[in-house]
Design a protein that fits this description.
alpha+beta; 20 strands; Aldehyde Oxidoreductase, domain 3; single chain; Molybdopterin biosynthesis moea protein, domain 2; 9 helices; about 25% helix; about 30% strand; Molybdenum Cofactor Biosythetic Enzyme, Chain A
C-alpha cells in the first residue's frame, strides 16, 4: 500500500485518508474515490488529496479485520459486520469469557497493522456483551501478514464457556454467640451469587463448628443431590488441620488447596469429594462484593479447570477492593508505630 499526497487526476479508486468538507458535505476517511468525486475535488480547487492506494496482494481493512476475527472466534462468540477496519466480537451466551493470552499476544506480535483487544480473561458475560475487538490500523495489510496470523492464531483464542446448572448445598457452622440473622444474610448472599452464574442453592444446613457435625451435613447435601458443596465456618480456616478441611478428609474427600493470592479471599479452601468440588468459603464471602471465591466459583460454574495451579496464578490483579464485613480490614493489619 502506498500512502501520501496523490494528484487528484490519479486518485480514482484510492482510499481517502482524512475526512474532508466538500460541497458542504463531510466525506469520511476511508471513502473510495470515484470519478465523480475527483470532479468535485477539482471544482473545490484541490490539486492533490491525501490517500492510500492499494497494491496487488493488499487486503482492504474491513476484509482484513473480518479475516482476523474469523481466526480467533471460539464457541459462544460472534463477529459483527466490519466497519472502518474494525470487527467487534460479542458473546452469544451467558458464561465465563476466556481469552488465550498466548494466542492474542502472537497475533498482536505479527505486525503493528493488526491489533486484537479483549476483556480480561475470566470475566462473566451476558449475551450481547462485547468481549473483543479487531482493529486494522492502516487502510490495508498485505495478504502475507494475514497468512502469518493464521499460522500463529491457534484455535478459539476468544470464547465463552457457558454456565452449567450446578446444584449447590451450603453448610454454615455456629459457635456460641453466632447470630442467626448473619447466617440468614449469608444464605441469601450465597444464593444470589450462585444464581448470577447459572447455579442454584438447593439446600442450606447449619450445625456446630466441629468435624463430626460438618461431616454429617456433607452427607446430607450429597443425599439431596448436590454437585457443589459450599462450607463457611463460624471461624475462618487457618490450617489444613482446622475443622472444615478435616471434615472434608473425614468424609473421604481431599483438600487440594488452602489459601489463594487474592485479597479479600486469602483463606479459601478447594477440595474434592466423590468427583464434586468442595469450596471452603472465606469470611468475605458473606458480603456480596467481589472476592477471590467468586473467581473460583465462576470457573467451577463454567466447567473450566481450577486447581492449585490456576488459583496460585491469580496473584496479578488479585488485590481486590476490600469488603466492609471483614473483622480486620487489610489497611489496619499493621503493627502500631512505637
Amino acid at each position: 500500500m502506498k500512502f501520501g499526497a496523490v494528484p487528484v487526476d490519479e486518485a480514482e479508486g484510492c482510499v481517502l485518508a482524512h475526512s474532508l468538507m466538500i460541497g458542504g458535505r463531510k466525506w469520511p476517511k476511508g471513502r473510495i474515490l470515484t470519478p465523480a468525486d475527483l470532479y468535485e475535488l477539482r471544482a473545490e480547487g484541490h490539486a492533490t488529496v491525501i490517500a492510500a492506494r492499494l497494491e496487488p496482494g493488499d487486503v482492504a481493512e474491513d476484509r482484513a479485520a473480518t479475516r482476523v476475527a474469523e481466526l480467533v472466534l471460539g464457541p459462544g462468540v460472534e463477529a459483527r459486520p466490519a466497519a472502518t477496519g474494525r470487527v467487534n466480537l460479542h458473546a452469544t451466551a451467558s458464561g465465563l469469557f476466556r481469552a488465550d493470552r498466548d494466542a492474542v499476544d502472537r497475533i498482536n506480535g505479527v505486525s503493528e497493522a493488526v491489533t486484537l483487544a479483549t476483556l480480561p480473561d475470566g470475566e462473566p458475560v451476558e449475551p450481547g456483551k462485547m468481549v473483543a475487538t479487531v482493529k486494522i490500523i492502516p487502510f490495508a495489510v498485505p495478504d502475507d501478514t494475514l497468512a502469518l496470523c493464521a499460522m500463529l492464531a491457534g484455535r478459539a483464542a476468544v470464547r465463552v464457556a457457558p454456565w452449567r446448572p450446578l446444584r449447590a448445598g451450603l453448610v454454615q457452622t455456629r459457635v456460641a454467640g453466632t447470630k442467626e440473622n448473619m447466617l440468614d444474610k449469608t444464605r441469601d448472599t450465597t444464593a444470589a451469587r450462585l444464581a448470577a452464574c447459572g447455579a442454584a442453592l438447593v439446600t442450606e444446613r447449619r450445625c456446630a463448628h466441629d468435624e463430626d457435625a460438618v461431616t454429617a451435613e456433607l452427607r446430607a447435601l450429597r443425599a439431596a443431590g448436590c454437585d457443589l458443596f459450599l462450607l463457611i465456618g463460624a471461624s475462618a480456616i487457618t490450617d489444613r488441620a482446622d475443622v472444615l478441611p478435616a471434615a472434608v478428609e473425614l468424609v473421604g474427600g481431599t483438600v487440594e488447596q488452602l489459601g489463594m493470592p487474592v485479597d479479600p479471599g486469602n483463606l479459601l479452601m478447594l477440595g474434592r469429594w466423590e468427583g464434586a468440588p468442595v469450596l471452603g468459603l472465606p469470611g468475605c464471602a458473606r458480603s456480596p462484593k467481589l472476592n477471590g471465591a467468586d473467581w473460583v466459583l465462576w470457573r467451577l460454574a463454567a466447567g473450566e479447570p481450577v486447581g492449585p495451579r490456576e488459583i496460585m496464578g491469580m496473584g496479578v490483579g488479585g488485590l481486590v477492593m476490600d469488603v466492609p464485613e471483614r473483622p480486620l480490614p487489610r489497611a489496619k493489619a499493621v503493627r502500631p508505630e512505637r
